[in-house]
Write a structure and sequence with these properties.
Radius of gyration: 14 Å
Helix content: 25-40%
Strand content: 15-25%
Bound molecules: tetrahydrodeoxyuridine
Largest sheet: 5 strands, mixed
CATH topology: Cytidine Deaminase, domain 2
Order of helices and strands: HEEHEHEEH
Number of domains: 1
CATH architecture: 3-Layer(aba) Sandwich
């Protein structure tokens, strides 16, 4: 994907806005919609810990709230190149299984996964009657 480096750079930029005073684990995300538009997100923690929202979901929800429904790729940047949590994998799966997930660490080392690799046999809208 030719926009890969740009997507990672935007995720790294969004990571600077992370509100993570409890975990000190800053996460940034940038999702590329089929429209060509990119939406970013960071993790937003809360003193009531369970209310924390991951960076990936912030990016997806921003995009969906702007009318997007189809996505090509999401980049996620953390200190250590962690992969998205299970909840975020499921939220991405809602919008199709053909999404590339690019993870990068703070040094810029990248790995790319198919969403289906990260969430095999995932539950999708097609499973609903
Ligand atoms: N976090 C994310 O933003 N995305 C993930 O996929 C995993 C975890 C955040 C949530 C919390 O603010 C911090 O990382 C530590 O769990």
């Amino acid at each position: 994907m030719k926009d890969r480096d740009r997507l990672v750079a935007l995720a790294a930029e969004a990571r600077k806005h992370s509100h993570a005073p409890y975990s000190n684990f800053a996460v940034g995300a940038a999702i590329l919609a089929s429209s060509g538009r990119i939406y970013t997100g960071c993790n937003v923690e809360n003193a009531s810990y369970g209310l924390t929202v991951c960076a990936e979901r912030v990016a997806v929800f921003k995009a969906v709230s702007e009318g997007e429904r189809e996505f090509e790729a999401i980049a996620v940047v953390t200190e250590n190149g962690a992969t998205p949590c299970g909840a975020c994998r499921q939220v991405l799966m809602e919008f199709g299984d053909d999404i590339q997930v690019i993870v990068a660490d703070a040094a810029g080392r990248q790995r790319t996964f198919a969403l289906t690799e990260l969430l095999p046999e995932g539950f999708t809208p097609d499973h609903l009657p």
